[in-house]
Structures are given as structure tokens and as C-alpha cells.
Amino acid sequence: MANTPLLPRLFLIVLTLFLGAGLARGEPAFTVDGKVALASLVSLSDGHLQKMADDLGELAATPEAQSGNWERIKSGLAQVGRRNVPALNWFALPDGSYWSVQEGRAAGNLSGRAYFPKLLAGKTVIGDLVVSRATGKSVAIVAVPVMGPDKSVAGMLGASVYLDQLSARLEKDMDLDQTMIFYSFDAAPLIGLDWDPHLIFTDPTKLSPDLSRAIGRMQAQEEGSTRYLFRDKQRTVLFRKSPLTGWWYVFGIIPEGRETPRSKEQR
Q1: Which residue among 31, 99, 176, 192 has the highest number of C-beta atoms inside a 10 angstrom radius?
Q2: Which CATH homologous superfamily contains domain 52-163?
Q3: What crossing angle do the helices spanning 32-60 and 70-82 adopt, rounded to 10°?
Q4: 80-99 burial code (b ≥16 CB/10 A, e <16)
Q5: Which fold has domain 14-48+168-257?
Q6: Helix, strand or coil for residue 139?
Q7: What is the pTM of this model?
Q8: Alpha carbon of 264 to those of 74, 131, 185, 261: distances in Å?
Q9: 3-class DSSP state for residue 159?
Q10: Which helix (H) or strand (E) holds 49?
Q11: Sheet holding 125-131, edge to edge
Q12: How many CB atoms lie within 10 A of CB 136?
């Protein structure tokens, strides 16, 4: 990953030049280069989540994971955590009781989570947005079922990926300047990733009427471009829906420069 920021940075420079020319003419001027810049955002973010799922899947296929014994599982799960983006790394039994590498046996239970029936059905989960009961942080769930010898679900391995830390990682990897913005949102809609961490896990339709209309336009399409006014600044953005997470990723610019991130009280 040491060399990853350079290529996206080159695309972003090209994006800025084309957008600047287009805005001077009073129209969006996104080109294929802008689409490549958005694709870089999607690829980096989805890549982190897919790698987590792949590593969890490899661990799920081991005798240690299939034993259902936390003492045999925690070492391998800790290794998965060290190889991936920051997250609460956990193992759950089919009844919803669970343990995490960071905190050991948890007092709570996961069986009431919306994603839990999918895991019980033997499906992988990538991108469900929740507030972690263990940490109180906004997270994206990446989890895989552990199949026992009889092909039934013997447990689940998961990671509650910290959205604020993944957002900061993307900003660093893409080497964004002060005219560039990005975020993602799901079907609810809830904001998952955002260059402004104070907006994570908020409903974007409640932030401003113009943004609410823009979110509606984006949700009606798989990809495209749009404009809207937010925090007294015009945004011109490209968007694309990810087939991996079901999130809409958004990338764009504010020619005069983006605002300073605000607290929830300042929105």
C-alpha cells in the first residue's frame, strides 16, 4: 500500500483541471478522467472491506474456527485484525453470544442485529452500517459464516470496521486537497464514510433540502453526476453505487475550497 496514493493523486489532479474548466462555463465538465478518480475511491474503500472478508473467510475454513472454541480462534482473528483496517474483530455463536479480540467475552448479544439472519443463512455480510454495542462507534460490518462439518452454521467471524478511521485512511491514501470531497451512503440513507467525520452516521436527507433532493436523485440511479448547495457552497459530484456494499460513493469538488469540518451542533 506504500505506493497507492500516487496513482489516485494523478487522477485527482486531472479531475480538478477538467472540473475547473467546466465550472467556468457554468456546466459540469466531468470526463472519463473524473470517472477514473471516482473509481479509485470505490476501489480503495471496497478493496479494504473485501480484503477483510477474504481474510475472515480463510480463517473460517480452519479447524480452529470450526471448533467454536474462542481460545483456539482468538489468535488467528487477532492476526486478521493486524493485517487490515482498524476494527473490532469478533467471533459469535449461532445464539448471538460473542467474543472480541479487543475485549474478550461480550456482555451483549448480536442475534437482534439485522445482519445476523443473513449469517445464519450462510451468507457473507459486507457493509451493513450499525453503532457498535461494544464500543459505541459507528461501524461497517464485515462478517462471514463458519460452516461446521455437517454444513450447518457453527458460528460467525466478523469485523466492525471503524468508519471514521477508514475515512481518514482514504483521505490519506488519495492525498486529497482542500477542494476535494468524498462520502458514501446506503439505502436507508445513512452516511457511512465522509471526509468530515462529524457527518458519519447521519441521515443526509435531514441536513438540507437541496442535499435531500440530490440524495434522491442519486438513489434513483446506479451512477451519474449532480449538483447541490450545502453549507452555502455549491458541490459538483460524481456518484456510483457499489455492487459489493450497496453504498453510493460520491466524489467531487468545491472550487473555492471545502469548509472546516463542523461538530454536530454546527451543522
Answers
A1: 192
A2: PAS domain (3.30.450.20)
A3: 160
A4: bbeebbbbbbbbbbbebbbb
A5: Beta-Lactamase (3.30.450)
A6: strand
A7: 0.86
A8: 37, 17, 18, 10
A9: strand
A10: helix 32-60
A11: 104-105, 98-100, 87-92, 153-162, 138-147, 125-131
A12: 8
